[in-house]
Amino acid sequence: xxxxxxxxxxxxxxxxxxxxxxxxxxxxxxxxxxxxxxxxxxxxxxxxxxxxxxxxxxxxxxxxxxxxxxxxxxxxxxxxxxxxxxxxxxxxxxxxxxxxxxxxxxxxxxxxxxxxxxxxxxxxxxxxxxxxxxxxxxxxxxxxxxxxxxxxxxxxxxxxxxxxxxxxxxxxxxxxxxxxxxxxxxxxxxxxxxxxxxxxxxxxxxxxxxxxxxxxxxxxxxxxxxxxxxxxxxxxxxxxxxxxxxxxxxxxxxxxxxxxxxxxxxxxxxxxxxxxxxxxxxxxxxxxxxxxxxxxxxxxxxxxxxxxxxxxxxxxxxxxxxxxxxxxxxxxxxxxxxxxxxxxxxxxxxxxxxxxxxxxxxxxxxxxxxxxxxxxxxxxxxxxxxxxxxxxxxxxxxxxxxxxxxxxxxxxxxxxxxxxxxxxxxxxxxxxxxxxxxxxxxxxxxxxxxxxxxxxxxxxxxxxxxxxxxxxxxxxxxxxxxxxxxxxxxxxxxxxxxxxxxxxxxxxxxxxxxxxxxxxxxxxxxxxxxxxxxxxxxxxxxxxxxxxxxxxxxxxxxxxxxxxxxxxxxxxxxxxxxxxxxxx
Length: 584
Description:
The chain is of the alpha+beta class. The chain folds into 2 domains: 23-193, Galactose-binding domain-like (Jelly Rolls); 200-467 and 506-527, Glycosyltransferase (Alpha/alpha barrel), CATH 1.50.10.10. It is built from 16 helices and 19 strands. Helix 4 crosses helix 5 (239-252), helix 5 (239-252) crosses helix 16 (514-523) and helix 14 (430-439) packs parallel to helix 16 (514-523). The longest helix has 25 residues, at 343-367. The chain is elongated. One of its GO terms (biological process) is carbohydrate metabolic process. It comes from Kriegella aquimaris. Residues 198-523 form the Alpha-L-rhamnosidase six-hairpin glycosidase domain. This is Alpha-L-rhamnosidase.
Protein backbone atom coordinates (compact mmCIF):
# COMPACT_ATOMS: atom_id res chain seq x y z
CA UNK A 1 0.00 0.00 0.00
CA UNK A 2 2.85 2.37 0.75
CA UNK A 3 4.13 1.97 -2.79
CA UNK A 4 0.68 2.75 -4.18
CA UNK A 5 0.56 5.99 -2.22
CA UNK A 6 4.07 6.84 -3.38
CA UNK A 7 2.97 6.27 -6.94
CA UNK A 8 -0.36 8.10 -6.96
CA UNK A 9 0.43 11.06 -4.80
CA UNK A 10 4.11 11.78 -5.35
CA UNK A 11 3.24 14.99 -7.13
CA UNK A 12 1.82 16.58 -3.97
CA UNK A 13 4.89 16.81 -1.75
CA UNK A 14 7.99 14.91 -0.69
CA UNK A 15 6.24 13.72 2.44
CA UNK A 16 3.51 12.22 0.30
CA UNK A 17 6.11 10.56 -1.91
CA UNK A 18 7.43 8.79 1.13
CA UNK A 19 4.13 7.15 1.88
CA UNK A 20 1.68 9.46 3.65
CA UNK A 21 -1.90 9.43 2.43
CA UNK A 22 -2.80 12.96 1.34
CA UNK A 23 -5.94 14.58 2.71
CA UNK A 24 -7.28 15.63 -0.71
CA UNK A 25 -7.48 12.13 -2.11
CA UNK A 26 -8.94 9.03 -0.59
CA UNK A 27 -8.50 5.62 -2.12
CA UNK A 28 -11.71 3.65 -2.12
CA UNK A 29 -10.62 0.35 -3.63
CA UNK A 30 -8.17 -0.85 -6.22
CA UNK A 31 -8.66 -3.20 -9.13
CA UNK A 32 -5.57 -4.85 -10.60
CA UNK A 33 -6.46 -5.02 -14.27
CA UNK A 34 -3.72 -7.54 -15.01
CA UNK A 35 -0.49 -8.91 -13.61
CA UNK A 36 1.40 -6.02 -15.17
CA UNK A 37 2.18 -2.65 -13.60
CA UNK A 38 -1.05 -1.12 -14.88
CA UNK A 39 -3.57 -0.72 -12.07
CA UNK A 40 -6.87 1.03 -11.56
CA UNK A 41 -7.86 3.00 -8.48
CA UNK A 42 -11.29 4.50 -7.86
CA UNK A 43 -11.32 8.06 -6.55
CA UNK A 44 -14.07 10.04 -4.86
CA UNK A 45 -14.76 13.61 -6.01
CA UNK A 46 -13.16 16.23 -3.78
CA UNK A 47 -15.61 19.06 -4.33
CA UNK A 48 -18.66 20.17 -6.25
CA UNK A 49 -17.66 23.09 -8.46
CA UNK A 50 -21.10 23.87 -9.85
CA UNK A 51 -24.65 22.57 -9.92
CA UNK A 52 -27.53 23.74 -12.05
CA UNK A 53 -30.02 23.84 -9.20
CA UNK A 54 -29.69 24.99 -5.60
CA UNK A 55 -33.36 24.79 -4.71
CA UNK A 56 -33.28 21.12 -3.74
CA UNK A 57 -35.95 20.26 -6.30
CA UNK A 58 -33.77 18.84 -9.08
CA UNK A 59 -30.48 18.06 -7.31
CA UNK A 60 -30.81 16.43 -3.91
CA UNK A 61 -28.16 15.44 -1.36
CA UNK A 62 -25.22 16.33 -3.59
CA UNK A 63 -22.80 16.07 -0.68
CA UNK A 64 -23.28 12.29 -0.75
CA UNK A 65 -21.11 12.17 -3.87
CA UNK A 66 -18.13 13.39 -1.80
CA UNK A 67 -18.37 10.56 0.70
CA UNK A 68 -16.06 7.59 0.41
CA UNK A 69 -17.95 4.43 -0.51
CA UNK A 70 -17.37 0.75 -1.15
CA UNK A 71 -18.29 0.68 -4.84
CA UNK A 72 -21.17 -1.75 -4.38
CA UNK A 73 -24.85 -0.90 -4.89
CA UNK A 74 -27.47 -2.46 -2.59
CA UNK A 75 -31.24 -2.63 -2.46
CA UNK A 76 -31.33 -0.80 0.88
CA UNK A 77 -28.94 2.08 0.13
CA UNK A 78 -30.05 5.21 1.97
CA UNK A 79 -29.41 8.94 1.55
CA UNK A 80 -28.27 8.75 -2.05
CA UNK A 81 -27.68 11.65 -4.39
CA UNK A 82 -30.70 12.25 -6.64
CA UNK A 83 -31.03 13.71 -10.12
CA UNK A 84 -34.64 14.79 -10.76
CA UNK A 85 -35.60 16.10 -14.20
CA UNK A 86 -38.77 17.64 -15.60
CA UNK A 87 -40.01 18.80 -18.96
CA UNK A 88 -38.22 22.10 -18.44
CA UNK A 89 -35.28 21.16 -16.22
CA UNK A 90 -32.40 18.82 -17.00
CA UNK A 91 -30.12 19.05 -13.94
CA UNK A 92 -26.35 18.95 -14.14
CA UNK A 93 -23.42 18.92 -11.75
CA UNK A 94 -19.67 19.55 -12.11
CA UNK A 95 -17.25 17.50 -10.00
CA UNK A 96 -13.57 18.05 -9.21
CA UNK A 97 -11.36 15.01 -8.53
CA UNK A 98 -8.54 17.16 -7.15
CA UNK A 99 -5.75 16.38 -9.63
CA UNK A 100 -5.33 15.57 -13.31
CA UNK A 101 -5.68 11.83 -13.87
CA UNK A 102 -5.87 9.36 -16.74
CA UNK A 103 -8.87 7.05 -17.05
CA UNK A 104 -12.63 7.30 -16.96
CA UNK A 105 -15.57 7.21 -14.58
CA UNK A 106 -17.67 4.58 -12.84
CA UNK A 107 -21.28 5.56 -12.12
CA UNK A 108 -23.50 3.43 -9.88
CA UNK A 109 -27.28 3.80 -9.63
CA UNK A 110 -29.51 2.56 -6.86
CA UNK A 111 -33.00 1.13 -6.97
CA UNK A 112 -35.84 3.23 -8.39
CA UNK A 113 -39.36 2.80 -9.69
CA UNK A 114 -38.42 2.86 -13.37
CA UNK A 115 -36.13 0.07 -14.51
CA UNK A 116 -35.21 1.74 -17.77
CA UNK A 117 -31.59 2.87 -18.13
CA UNK A 118 -30.85 6.47 -17.23
CA UNK A 119 -29.30 8.58 -20.00
CA UNK A 120 -26.57 10.94 -18.85
CA UNK A 121 -24.34 13.27 -20.80
CA UNK A 122 -20.72 13.22 -19.61
CA UNK A 123 -18.19 15.97 -20.28
CA UNK A 124 -14.64 15.39 -19.08
CA UNK A 125 -12.36 18.38 -18.77
CA UNK A 126 -8.76 19.16 -17.94
CA UNK A 127 -10.14 22.52 -16.82
CA UNK A 128 -13.48 23.68 -15.46
CA UNK A 129 -14.05 25.58 -18.69
CA UNK A 130 -13.47 22.51 -20.86
CA UNK A 131 -15.88 20.41 -18.79
CA UNK A 132 -18.53 23.11 -19.19
CA UNK A 133 -17.99 23.53 -22.95
CA UNK A 134 -19.76 22.43 -26.12
CA UNK A 135 -17.93 20.69 -28.96
CA UNK A 136 -16.55 23.10 -31.57
CA UNK A 137 -17.06 26.84 -31.61
CA UNK A 138 -14.45 29.49 -31.02
CA UNK A 139 -13.07 27.64 -28.00
CA UNK A 140 -12.53 24.45 -30.01
CA UNK A 141 -13.50 21.65 -27.62
CA UNK A 142 -13.06 18.31 -29.40
CA UNK A 143 -13.52 14.58 -29.13
CA UNK A 144 -10.25 13.95 -30.98
CA UNK A 145 -7.84 11.22 -29.82
CA UNK A 146 -10.11 10.37 -26.88
CA UNK A 147 -13.85 10.82 -26.36
CA UNK A 148 -14.59 13.34 -23.64
CA UNK A 149 -18.17 14.46 -24.45
CA UNK A 150 -20.80 11.75 -24.98
CA UNK A 151 -24.06 10.22 -23.74
CA UNK A 152 -24.24 6.93 -21.83
CA UNK A 153 -26.92 4.79 -20.18
CA UNK A 154 -26.77 3.80 -16.50
CA UNK A 155 -28.47 0.49 -15.61
CA UNK A 156 -31.08 0.19 -12.90
CA UNK A 157 -29.47 -1.04 -9.65
CA UNK A 158 -26.09 -1.37 -11.35
CA UNK A 159 -22.91 0.32 -12.48
CA UNK A 160 -21.22 1.24 -15.71
CA UNK A 161 -17.65 2.31 -16.35
CA UNK A 162 -16.73 4.41 -19.38
CA UNK A 163 -14.08 6.79 -20.63
CA UNK A 164 -10.38 6.81 -21.39
CA UNK A 165 -8.94 10.30 -21.38
CA UNK A 166 -7.05 12.87 -19.34
CA UNK A 167 -9.18 14.91 -16.98
CA UNK A 168 -9.67 16.45 -13.56
CA UNK A 169 -13.26 17.67 -13.88
CA UNK A 170 -16.45 15.90 -14.91
CA UNK A 171 -19.82 17.44 -15.74
CA UNK A 172 -22.85 15.15 -15.69
CA UNK A 173 -26.27 16.17 -17.07
CA UNK A 174 -29.57 14.31 -17.23
CA UNK A 175 -30.64 13.92 -20.86
CA UNK A 176 -34.35 13.04 -20.65
CA UNK A 177 -37.34 14.54 -18.86
CA UNK A 178 -39.23 13.10 -15.90
CA UNK A 179 -36.40 11.10 -14.40
CA UNK A 180 -35.81 10.45 -10.69
CA UNK A 181 -32.42 8.78 -10.40
CA UNK A 182 -30.75 7.75 -7.16
CA UNK A 183 -26.98 7.81 -7.77
CA UNK A 184 -24.77 6.03 -5.25
CA UNK A 185 -21.38 7.07 -6.59
CA UNK A 186 -19.61 8.88 -9.41
CA UNK A 187 -16.04 7.72 -9.04
CA UNK A 188 -13.06 8.45 -11.24
CA UNK A 189 -11.41 5.27 -12.54
CA UNK A 190 -7.73 6.24 -12.39
CA UNK A 191 -5.47 4.06 -14.59
CA UNK A 192 -1.72 4.31 -14.06
CA UNK A 193 1.48 2.33 -13.57
CA UNK A 194 2.03 1.18 -10.00
CA UNK A 195 5.71 2.00 -9.85
CA UNK A 196 7.72 3.68 -7.09
CA UNK A 197 9.18 7.16 -7.31
CA UNK A 198 12.86 6.31 -6.83
CA UNK A 199 14.21 9.81 -7.39
CA UNK A 200 13.35 12.76 -5.19
CA UNK A 201 14.10 16.45 -4.79
CA UNK A 202 13.63 18.79 -1.87
CA UNK A 203 15.08 22.23 -1.29
CA UNK A 204 14.65 25.41 0.70
CA UNK A 205 12.18 26.59 -1.98
CA UNK A 206 8.84 24.80 -1.84
CA UNK A 207 7.89 26.17 -5.26
CA UNK A 208 10.80 24.33 -6.87
CA UNK A 209 9.90 21.18 -4.93
CA UNK A 210 6.35 21.34 -6.27
CA UNK A 211 7.60 21.92 -9.81
CA UNK A 212 9.95 18.91 -9.62
CA UNK A 213 7.12 16.68 -8.38
CA UNK A 214 4.62 18.01 -10.93
CA UNK A 215 7.00 17.24 -13.81
CA UNK A 216 7.52 13.73 -12.45
CA UNK A 217 3.77 13.17 -12.17
CA UNK A 218 3.15 14.56 -15.66
CA UNK A 219 5.42 11.95 -17.21
CA UNK A 220 4.08 9.22 -14.93
CA UNK A 221 0.55 9.77 -16.26
CA UNK A 222 1.87 9.43 -19.82
CA UNK A 223 3.52 6.07 -19.09
CA UNK A 224 0.54 4.13 -20.40
CA UNK A 225 0.75 1.29 -22.95
CA UNK A 226 3.58 3.24 -24.53
CA UNK A 227 5.22 6.50 -23.59
CA UNK A 228 2.72 9.08 -24.80
CA UNK A 229 3.08 12.82 -25.00
CA UNK A 230 -0.44 13.56 -23.74
CA UNK A 231 -3.22 11.64 -22.04
CA UNK A 232 -6.13 13.61 -23.53
CA UNK A 233 -4.62 14.46 -26.90
CA UNK A 234 -1.39 13.22 -28.46
CA UNK A 235 -1.81 9.73 -27.06
CA UNK A 236 0.99 8.81 -29.47
CA UNK A 237 4.68 8.01 -29.47
CA UNK A 238 6.23 11.29 -30.65
CA UNK A 239 9.95 10.58 -30.62
CA UNK A 240 11.23 14.13 -30.22
CA UNK A 241 8.75 14.79 -27.44
CA UNK A 242 10.08 11.68 -25.71
CA UNK A 243 13.51 13.19 -25.03
CA UNK A 244 12.53 15.34 -22.03
CA UNK A 245 10.27 12.52 -20.85
CA UNK A 246 13.09 9.98 -20.98
CA UNK A 247 15.36 12.31 -19.03
CA UNK A 248 12.62 12.58 -16.40
CA UNK A 249 12.18 8.80 -16.31
CA UNK A 250 15.94 8.41 -15.82
CA UNK A 251 15.69 10.84 -12.91
CA UNK A 252 12.54 9.58 -11.20
CA UNK A 253 11.88 5.97 -12.17
CA UNK A 254 15.26 4.74 -13.36
CA UNK A 255 15.56 2.12 -16.06
CA UNK A 256 12.05 1.31 -17.27
CA UNK A 257 11.07 -0.89 -20.20
CA UNK A 258 8.48 1.57 -21.53
CA UNK A 259 11.34 3.63 -22.96
CA UNK A 260 12.91 0.87 -25.03
CA UNK A 261 9.47 -0.44 -25.99
CA UNK A 262 8.53 2.99 -27.36
CA UNK A 263 11.86 3.56 -29.10
CA UNK A 264 11.58 0.19 -30.82
CA UNK A 265 8.00 0.92 -31.86
CA UNK A 266 9.14 4.11 -33.59
CA UNK A 267 12.03 2.31 -35.29
CA UNK A 268 9.72 -0.38 -36.64
CA UNK A 269 6.88 1.98 -37.61
CA UNK A 270 9.19 4.18 -39.68
CA UNK A 271 11.63 2.03 -41.66
CA UNK A 272 14.29 3.96 -43.53
CA UNK A 273 14.23 6.16 -45.50
CA UNK A 274 11.19 7.46 -43.61
CA UNK A 275 11.69 10.05 -40.90
CA UNK A 276 10.18 9.17 -37.55
CA UNK A 277 6.75 10.78 -37.22
CA UNK A 278 7.51 12.30 -40.64
CA UNK A 279 9.90 14.79 -39.00
CA UNK A 280 13.65 14.73 -39.65
CA UNK A 281 14.58 16.17 -36.24
CA UNK A 282 12.58 13.42 -34.53
CA UNK A 283 14.79 10.79 -36.15
CA UNK A 284 17.76 12.67 -34.72
CA UNK A 285 16.13 12.75 -31.29
CA UNK A 286 15.87 8.93 -31.53
CA UNK A 287 19.66 8.73 -31.73
CA UNK A 288 20.15 11.28 -28.95
CA UNK A 289 17.77 9.39 -26.68
CA UNK A 290 19.71 6.19 -27.25
CA UNK A 291 22.92 8.01 -26.32
CA UNK A 292 21.37 9.28 -23.07
CA UNK A 293 19.82 5.88 -22.31
CA UNK A 294 23.14 4.09 -22.64
CA UNK A 295 24.96 6.79 -20.67
CA UNK A 296 22.59 6.31 -17.74
CA UNK A 297 22.07 2.55 -17.79
CA UNK A 298 24.90 0.97 -19.77
CA UNK A 299 22.71 -1.59 -21.52
CA UNK A 300 25.09 -2.69 -24.27
CA UNK A 301 22.95 -5.66 -25.31
CA UNK A 302 20.04 -3.34 -26.11
CA UNK A 303 22.27 -0.78 -27.84
CA UNK A 304 23.69 -3.45 -30.14
CA UNK A 305 20.17 -4.26 -31.34
CA UNK A 306 19.95 -0.74 -32.75
CA UNK A 307 23.24 -0.85 -34.64
CA UNK A 308 21.97 -1.67 -38.12
CA UNK A 309 19.14 0.88 -38.12
CA UNK A 310 21.30 3.54 -36.45
CA UNK A 311 24.09 3.26 -39.01
CA UNK A 312 21.56 3.46 -41.83
CA UNK A 313 19.96 6.53 -40.27
CA UNK A 314 23.27 8.31 -39.70
CA UNK A 315 24.35 7.58 -43.26
CA UNK A 316 21.01 8.88 -44.51
CA UNK A 317 21.37 12.07 -42.48
CA UNK A 318 24.85 12.60 -43.89
CA UNK A 319 23.40 12.95 -47.39
CA UNK A 320 21.51 16.10 -46.34
CA UNK A 321 24.56 18.39 -46.08
CA UNK A 322 25.46 20.74 -48.92
CA UNK A 323 28.85 21.97 -50.14
CA UNK A 324 28.77 24.80 -47.58
CA UNK A 325 28.38 22.29 -44.71
CA UNK A 326 24.80 23.40 -44.24
CA UNK A 327 22.01 20.97 -43.39
CA UNK A 328 19.37 20.67 -46.12
CA UNK A 329 17.04 18.20 -44.42
CA UNK A 330 13.74 17.40 -46.09
CA UNK A 331 10.53 16.04 -44.62
CA UNK A 332 8.92 17.88 -41.74
CA UNK A 333 11.34 20.60 -40.67
CA UNK A 334 10.31 21.16 -37.07
CA UNK A 335 11.75 22.13 -33.69
CA UNK A 336 8.70 23.27 -31.74
CA UNK A 337 5.51 25.13 -32.62
CA UNK A 338 6.57 28.71 -31.72
CA UNK A 339 9.55 28.47 -34.12
CA UNK A 340 7.66 26.63 -36.87
CA UNK A 341 7.02 29.77 -38.95
CA UNK A 342 10.60 31.05 -38.68
CA UNK A 343 12.79 29.31 -41.29
CA UNK A 344 15.99 30.87 -39.97
CA UNK A 345 15.26 29.48 -36.48
CA UNK A 346 14.37 26.05 -37.82
CA UNK A 347 17.60 25.91 -39.84
CA UNK A 348 19.68 27.04 -36.87
CA UNK A 349 18.12 24.41 -34.66
CA UNK A 350 18.45 21.64 -37.22
CA UNK A 351 22.09 22.53 -37.88
CA UNK A 352 22.78 22.28 -34.15
CA UNK A 353 20.90 19.01 -33.92
CA UNK A 354 22.91 17.56 -36.80
CA UNK A 355 26.11 18.43 -34.95
CA UNK A 356 24.89 16.84 -31.72
CA UNK A 357 23.49 13.80 -33.53
CA UNK A 358 26.75 12.96 -35.30
CA UNK A 359 28.71 13.54 -32.10
CA UNK A 360 26.36 11.11 -30.35
CA UNK A 361 26.64 8.70 -33.28
CA UNK A 362 30.43 8.77 -33.07
CA UNK A 363 30.31 8.05 -29.34
CA UNK A 364 27.86 5.19 -29.84
CA UNK A 365 30.01 3.66 -32.56
CA UNK A 366 32.97 3.75 -30.18
CA UNK A 367 30.92 1.84 -27.61
CA UNK A 368 29.93 -0.67 -30.28
CA UNK A 369 33.56 -1.17 -31.30
CA UNK A 370 33.09 0.41 -34.74
CA UNK A 371 36.20 2.61 -34.74
CA UNK A 372 35.90 3.25 -38.49
CA UNK A 373 32.41 4.66 -38.14
CA UNK A 374 33.35 6.57 -35.00
CA UNK A 375 35.95 8.45 -37.03
CA UNK A 376 33.59 8.90 -39.97
CA UNK A 377 30.76 10.41 -37.93
CA UNK A 378 33.09 12.58 -35.83
CA UNK A 379 34.37 14.10 -39.08
CA UNK A 380 30.80 14.80 -40.22
CA UNK A 381 30.13 16.59 -36.95
CA UNK A 382 33.23 18.73 -37.34
CA UNK A 383 32.26 19.50 -40.91
CA UNK A 384 28.84 20.70 -39.79
CA UNK A 385 30.43 22.99 -37.21
CA UNK A 386 32.05 24.95 -40.02
CA UNK A 387 28.65 26.46 -40.84
CA UNK A 388 27.19 28.89 -38.29
CA UNK A 389 23.55 29.80 -38.99
CA UNK A 390 22.69 33.49 -39.05
CA UNK A 391 19.70 35.67 -38.18
CA UNK A 392 18.19 33.46 -35.51
CA UNK A 393 16.55 35.42 -32.71
CA UNK A 394 14.63 32.65 -30.97
CA UNK A 395 15.54 31.25 -27.58
CA UNK A 396 14.88 27.70 -28.72
CA UNK A 397 17.34 27.60 -31.61
CA UNK A 398 19.87 29.72 -29.71
CA UNK A 399 19.84 27.20 -26.88
CA UNK A 400 20.55 24.34 -29.28
CA UNK A 401 23.39 26.26 -30.91
CA UNK A 402 24.94 26.83 -27.50
CA UNK A 403 24.60 23.15 -26.62
CA UNK A 404 26.19 22.19 -29.96
CA UNK A 405 29.06 24.69 -29.49
CA UNK A 406 28.03 26.60 -32.58
CA UNK A 407 27.85 29.71 -30.42
CA UNK A 408 29.31 30.68 -27.06
CA UNK A 409 26.89 29.71 -24.30
CA UNK A 410 27.53 32.77 -22.13
CA UNK A 411 27.06 35.10 -25.08
CA UNK A 412 23.83 33.32 -26.07
CA UNK A 413 22.57 33.48 -22.51
CA UNK A 414 23.21 37.21 -22.21
CA UNK A 415 22.01 38.27 -25.64
CA UNK A 416 19.08 35.90 -26.19
CA UNK A 417 18.02 33.55 -23.39
CA UNK A 418 17.67 36.12 -20.61
CA UNK A 419 15.91 38.72 -22.72
CA UNK A 420 12.23 39.47 -22.00
CA UNK A 421 12.14 37.20 -18.96
CA UNK A 422 10.20 34.01 -19.73
CA UNK A 423 8.40 35.34 -22.77
CA UNK A 424 8.82 33.56 -26.10
CA UNK A 425 9.44 30.16 -24.52
CA UNK A 426 7.83 26.80 -25.04
CA UNK A 427 7.26 24.02 -22.55
CA UNK A 428 9.08 21.56 -24.85
CA UNK A 429 12.20 23.59 -25.61
CA UNK A 430 12.22 25.21 -22.20
CA UNK A 431 14.29 22.22 -21.13
CA UNK A 432 17.03 23.02 -23.64
CA UNK A 433 16.95 26.68 -22.68
CA UNK A 434 17.62 25.60 -19.08
CA UNK A 435 20.42 23.31 -20.26
CA UNK A 436 22.04 26.15 -22.19
CA UNK A 437 21.75 28.45 -19.17
CA UNK A 438 23.52 25.81 -17.08
CA UNK A 439 26.26 25.62 -19.70
CA UNK A 440 26.62 29.39 -19.29
CA UNK A 441 26.88 28.90 -15.50
CA UNK A 442 23.71 30.94 -14.97
CA UNK A 443 22.13 28.64 -12.42
CA UNK A 444 20.42 31.41 -10.48
CA UNK A 445 18.88 32.71 -13.70
CA UNK A 446 17.70 29.22 -14.64
CA UNK A 447 16.04 28.79 -11.24
CA UNK A 448 14.25 32.08 -11.81
CA UNK A 449 13.01 30.82 -15.19
CA UNK A 450 11.72 27.62 -13.61
CA UNK A 451 9.89 29.53 -10.87
CA UNK A 452 8.36 32.06 -13.24
CA UNK A 453 7.51 29.84 -16.22
CA UNK A 454 6.61 26.43 -14.83
CA UNK A 455 5.53 27.99 -11.56
CA UNK A 456 3.21 30.22 -13.56
CA UNK A 457 1.22 27.15 -14.55
CA UNK A 458 0.94 26.08 -10.92
CA UNK A 459 -0.36 29.56 -10.05
CA UNK A 460 -3.21 28.94 -12.49
CA UNK A 461 -4.21 25.68 -10.82
CA UNK A 462 -2.14 23.25 -12.88
CA UNK A 463 -1.42 19.83 -11.39
CA UNK A 464 0.43 18.69 -14.53
CA UNK A 465 2.43 20.72 -17.02
CA UNK A 466 0.94 21.89 -20.28
CA UNK A 467 1.54 21.41 -23.98
CA UNK A 468 2.26 25.11 -24.26
CA UNK A 469 2.26 28.12 -21.96
CA UNK A 470 2.51 31.76 -23.02
CA UNK A 471 2.99 34.04 -20.03
CA UNK A 472 1.47 36.93 -21.97
CA UNK A 473 -1.89 35.13 -21.73
CA UNK A 474 -1.90 35.19 -17.93
CA UNK A 475 -2.98 38.77 -17.48
CA UNK A 476 -6.68 38.96 -16.66
CA UNK A 477 -7.09 35.16 -16.93
CA UNK A 478 -8.80 32.95 -14.39
CA UNK A 479 -7.52 29.68 -12.95
CA UNK A 480 -8.33 26.37 -14.60
CA UNK A 481 -10.05 25.11 -11.43
CA UNK A 482 -12.74 27.78 -11.24
CA UNK A 483 -15.70 28.98 -13.27
CA UNK A 484 -14.56 31.82 -15.49
CA UNK A 485 -15.92 35.19 -14.27
CA UNK A 486 -17.49 37.42 -16.90
CA UNK A 487 -14.66 39.95 -16.65
CA UNK A 488 -11.88 37.35 -16.99
CA UNK A 489 -10.30 35.39 -19.83
CA UNK A 490 -10.34 31.60 -19.87
CA UNK A 491 -6.64 30.62 -19.84
CA UNK A 492 -7.58 27.28 -21.43
CA UNK A 493 -10.34 28.13 -23.90
CA UNK A 494 -9.46 31.62 -25.08
CA UNK A 495 -5.86 31.15 -26.19
CA UNK A 496 -3.56 28.83 -28.11
CA UNK A 497 -2.18 28.47 -31.61
CA UNK A 498 -1.22 25.81 -34.14
CA UNK A 499 -2.54 22.42 -32.98
CA UNK A 500 -3.40 23.60 -29.46
CA UNK A 501 -6.12 26.19 -30.07
CA UNK A 502 -8.58 26.56 -27.21
CA UNK A 503 -9.71 23.47 -25.34
CA UNK A 504 -7.85 21.20 -27.74
CA UNK A 505 -4.81 22.37 -25.78
CA UNK A 506 -3.44 19.50 -23.68
CA UNK A 507 -2.88 20.34 -20.01
CA UNK A 508 -0.83 17.20 -19.40
CA UNK A 509 2.08 16.97 -21.84
CA UNK A 510 5.17 14.97 -21.02
CA UNK A 511 7.50 17.14 -23.08
CA UNK A 512 6.95 19.89 -20.47
CA UNK A 513 8.67 17.99 -17.64
CA UNK A 514 12.17 19.41 -18.21
CA UNK A 515 12.72 21.03 -14.77
CA UNK A 516 12.48 17.67 -13.03
CA UNK A 517 15.61 16.20 -14.59
CA UNK A 518 17.31 19.61 -14.71
CA UNK A 519 16.93 20.24 -10.96
CA UNK A 520 18.32 16.81 -10.11
CA UNK A 521 21.22 17.09 -12.51
CA UNK A 522 22.27 20.68 -11.91
CA UNK A 523 21.04 21.66 -8.44
CA UNK A 524 21.68 18.31 -6.80
CA UNK A 525 24.66 18.08 -9.14
CA UNK A 526 24.19 14.46 -10.18
CA UNK A 527 26.01 13.81 -13.46
CA UNK A 528 26.01 10.19 -14.62
CA UNK A 529 29.21 9.01 -16.34
CA UNK A 530 30.79 5.83 -17.70
CA UNK A 531 27.56 4.11 -18.73
CA UNK A 532 26.16 4.48 -15.22
CA UNK A 533 29.24 3.23 -13.41
CA UNK A 534 30.23 6.63 -12.04
CA UNK A 535 28.46 9.73 -10.80
CA UNK A 536 30.16 13.11 -10.60
CA UNK A 537 28.59 15.35 -7.96
CA UNK A 538 28.85 19.09 -8.61
CA UNK A 539 25.94 20.90 -6.93
CA UNK A 540 24.86 24.42 -7.90
CA UNK A 541 22.46 25.81 -5.32
CA UNK A 542 22.12 29.24 -6.91
CA UNK A 543 20.01 31.24 -4.46
CA UNK A 544 18.96 28.16 -2.46
CA UNK A 545 20.05 27.56 1.12
CA UNK A 546 19.97 23.79 0.82
CA UNK A 547 18.86 20.94 -1.43
CA UNK A 548 18.68 17.20 -1.03
CA UNK A 549 17.30 14.22 -2.85
CA UNK A 550 17.71 10.79 -4.31
CA UNK A 551 18.62 9.48 -7.73
CA UNK A 552 18.15 5.97 -9.17
CA UNK A 553 21.38 4.41 -10.45
CA UNK A 554 22.17 0.96 -11.77
CA UNK A 555 23.47 0.08 -8.31
CA UNK A 556 20.63 1.53 -6.24
CA UNK A 557 19.51 4.89 -4.89
CA UNK A 558 22.14 7.59 -4.57
CA UNK A 559 21.30 10.16 -1.86
CA UNK A 560 22.81 13.61 -1.59
CA UNK A 561 22.34 16.47 0.86
CA UNK A 562 23.85 19.89 0.15
CA UNK A 563 23.86 22.96 2.41
CA UNK A 564 25.29 26.39 1.69
CA UNK A 565 27.64 27.82 4.30
CA UNK A 566 27.83 31.46 5.30
CA UNK A 567 30.84 31.99 3.03
CA UNK A 568 28.98 30.59 0.02
CA UNK A 569 30.76 27.25 0.00
CA UNK A 570 28.66 24.07 -0.13
CA UNK A 571 28.88 21.27 2.39
CA UNK A 572 27.73 17.95 0.92
CA UNK A 573 26.83 14.58 2.33
CA UNK A 574 26.68 11.66 -0.06
CA UNK A 575 25.23 8.22 0.56
CA UNK A 576 26.12 6.06 -2.43
CA UNK A 577 25.13 2.44 -3.06
CA UNK A 578 27.85 -0.18 -3.15
CA UNK A 579 29.51 -0.46 -6.55
CA UNK A 580 28.86 3.11 -7.66
CA UNK A 581 31.97 5.25 -8.09
CA UNK A 582 31.65 8.85 -6.90
CA UNK A 583 33.65 11.84 -8.09
CA UNK A 584 33.34 15.10 -6.16
